Amino acid sequence: MDSFPSSEFAARQLPRPAFSRPREIRGLVKHVRTVAWSCDGRHCATGGEYKEVVVWDQSLDYRAATSLPSANTSSPHSHHVGAIAWSPSDPTILVTADKTFATGSVVAVWDITSASSPIAIFKTPGDVINLAFHPSGRHFAAVYPMKGRDVVDFFCLTQVLGKDTWLKRDDITLGGFTPEIGSEELNSLRFINSGELVCAVSNDGTINAWIYPVEYTPLEDGVQPDDSIDTAEQCEAEEDNRDREGGEKGDGCSDVSTPDDSEEYKEEAVEGDVEMTEGDVKGQTTPENSNHETMDGPEGMPIESNANSVAEIAETDSRDDAQLSTAQPLREATPPADVTVEHVKRRAKSLTRYRHASIYSASLLSLSFDPRGRFLVTGGQDALLTLYDTKGWMAVKSWDVFMAAIRHTAFSYDGEYIAVGGDDLFIAILSVYTGQVITKISLPAAVNALSWHPKKNTLAYCHQGKIGVPIWYILQQE
User: Fold this and answer.
1) pLDDT digit string (tens) for 127-161?
2) Is 208 left (phi over 0), alpha (psi -120 to 50) or beta?
3) Domain count within the chain
4) Angle formed by the axes of helices 307-325 and 262-282, to 10°?
5) Digit-coded pLDDT (tens) for 274-331
6) Same-domain pairing of 403 and 446
7) Are 390 and 349 in contact (CB under 8 A)?
8) At CA 7, angle to CA 6 and CA 9, rounded to 5?
9) Residue span of the structural domain in which 257 resides
10) Alpha-helix runs per DSSP H in 180-286
11) Same domain, 316 and 434
12) Residue that is last in its domain, among 291, 317, 341
C-alpha cells in the first residue's frame, strides 16, 4: 500500500494510537448474537438467543441492566434476536428483530423509558438479516430474504390522530426481480448521511443506490374498472358465448338489443335463419353461375329486362323457405358482457434506482459509511476490503490482511479507524488515512457484530463462540 507522509499521525500532530486489552462483560445467561450503542453513548443493547434483549447503562453492570420486555411480560419475539438498531436522533428508541426460520420474523420498536412492552410490532414473512435507520431517526429499513431474492420493508414515524405512530410504509418497496438486473440479493443496506439515498451491496458484486422519498403517501382502496380485460377480449368472450348457443358471431360489442328493438331483432333473426337454411338445402351458387346472372340474364338480355322475373323467383323461394324455417326456434339476443367494477388496491411503487456499479468480482457482504460523509467501505467473499470516496465511487485504498470472508465493517465516530471482522478468528482495526493495521484482537470464533461508541473510540463486539458463560466485549483506545 502506498504511504503518504502527510497522512501519518505525527504529521497530523496525533499520538500513535494504542488500544487496551478487551474487557469482558458478563452476567447474561444466553449467548449474545448482536450488540449496538445508542446515539448518545449512554446505553448499549445486546440481542441474544431465545428472545433475549438487554439494555445496559454506562456502568455495563448486569445488575443495572434492563431486560426488554420487563419481568412478567411475554416477549413479542419467538426466537433468536439477531438484529438491533438504535435511532440516530432519539436515544430512547430501539428496534429489534428476531429469526424464527419457519414463520418469518417479528420487528419490535421499543421506548426504553417504558420497557413493559414495545410501542409497535410488525411481522415479516422472512428472517430479518439487516436493520438500518434513516439519519432523521423517523424512518428505518428491514431486509429479509424471500425465495431467492431479498425484500426491503420501510417503516416511518407519522402522525395518526395527532399522535406519533410507527407504521409500515405501503407506498414504496425495494427488492425483487428487475428486467435489467434480475433478482437481487441485498446483503447489507445503509442510508447515506444526507438520507437522500439508500445504498446496498449484493451477491453479484455490485453496489446500488436508490432515491429515498421521505414523504409518506399512504395507499387507499379505490373503486375503478377492472382493466384486466379490454374491449377486444370482451368482444371475443361475447362471440364465444354466442357460438356455444348455436348463433352467429356478432359484428362487435356495439350491437346490443334493447326492449324497443326486440321485434326488429326477431325479424332480422328470421331472415338470417332463412338464408342459412337456404344455403343448407339448395347449396352454394357456383362462381360461373353467379357471374352469369349478375352481368346478363339467362337469354343474354340486359339485367333491366329480367328484373321483374328475378323478383318473382326470389319471392317464391322465400315463401317456400319460410315454411322450412318455422321448425327452428327463435333466439333471443345475448345480453352484453358486463364491465366489472371492483375495489382495486394500488400497488407500492418501487424505488427509483440512482446508480448501479459493478465493483467486485465476488459477493459483497458488508457496507459502511464514514460518519463525516467522505468514504464508504465494502468487504466481500474474496477477503478484500476496499475504501471508496462517496462522490465518484472511486477506489482509494484496499487491504488484503484477511484470509476469509469479510462480513462486518464499522467506522469509528471520528472516521479515523475501521473495525473489520468476518470468518477469520480476529478483528482488525485499520487506519483510514495511513492504511496501517493498528491492532488485531484474537477471537475463539467468528465475529457476530461490531459497534463503535458514538463519542469515543470504544468498540463493542461479540462472537459466535459458546465456551463457558455468555460474554461480550469492550475494547477502548488508551
Assistant:
1) 899 999 999 999 999 999 887 778 899 999 998 88
2) beta
3) 2
4) 100
5) 343 344 434 444 444 444 444 444 344 443 444 444 445 445 555 555 454 444 455 5
6) yes
7) no
8) 105
9) 223-341
10) 231-244, 262-282
11) no
12) 341
